[in-house]
Amino acid sequence: MKKAMLDGQSKLLLFVNGLFVLASALSGTFINVFLWKSRQDFTMIGWFTISQQIALVLTFWLAGKWVKEHNKMNVIRVGILLSAVFYLLVLWLDQQAVSYIWPLGLLLGTSLGLFWISFNVVYFEVTSRDNRDLFNGWVGLIGSLVGIVGPWASGLVISLSKANQGYRIIFMISMVVYGVGVIVSFFLKKRKTEGTYYWIEPFRQLKNTASPWRHAAPALAFQGIREGVFSFLVNLLVYIATTQEVKLGQFYLYTSLVALVSYHFVGKWYKPAHRYYGSLVGALLLSLLTLPLLWAVNYSTLLIVGIGSALFMPFYILPMISSVFDLMGTSEEMVSKRVELVVLREICLSAGRIAGVLIFILVLSIHDSSKTMTWLMVILGFSPVLSWLFLRKLVRI
Length: 397
Description:
- The protein is mainly alpha-helical.
- Helices cover about 80% and strands about 0% of the residues.
- It has 15 helices and no strands.
């Protein structure tokens, strides 16, 4: 069997991704904490998350035409630049940023949407079914390595600085890293354009009862439910439990170190034939690992959840990513519609994320208590199992 390999363009794309993720890890880990310190309101943070997801999914759909019919590399660059602009505005607004949750969230979501739609399309073009798991393993590996250094360094700088001076330093460093990412992106080859963008193709796929996307769509949506809530709530709870940014940085250092090892071994071991049972094991363990929160929500139990998630997430997420992207290569017609299908993938994920956060906001508006929040995390934490139930037909070989 031919050994899976990555070519120069794949490695360069990984480098650009690493820079973007590094800048996001340095500042993105603490942006919700920065807002929380100005106003202790879970609902406010929830709406900030929803505004990002609304902008992200709309950007995917609208920018799809640009990516397919024009220079997709410019889309990556604009996305990186807008991320830098976001942190520049947060620096300028300082504590008044909480008064502009929606415009800031929409801007951040737009920047993320522009970067990730182009990245995902280029990723599909520079990989194949044979090396897609390897590429995804490297993405996870780099993300984990960045997660070790970025949040820990940020937390240390913030804790050693007076008032919000540490946040200003970290946000400025992120802007510099984003700038380097733009420069490096010019070494990626310009990708050729192909065909016309079909605006309604994502919805046509969902309407078609014979389309495999009818299974992929709910699987992605249930994946998004967990992501939407856990993406902001876990780090906030760690900060609330410790009241120290340096502790939050240490939390990400420990969990990312575990994820680094896990992504390394799982990325090397995973083959398409392993996806069925590997994703099942990952989904079950991710879900069960939320149960310790029922005993107590403190730094120790949150660390158990974080380390456990870091250890088992690759088993679940790598088949999710690879199998869905494999659907884009099942025929020449699907390959020609890869941009529209990348948009469809993001619509499904964002729908799940928005649904998860809306459930979170609605439940807390009815009964706002720490016990309610804990049970909500546990219940929503079981969504990967539901995701696997829809995914299993796509990963069975």
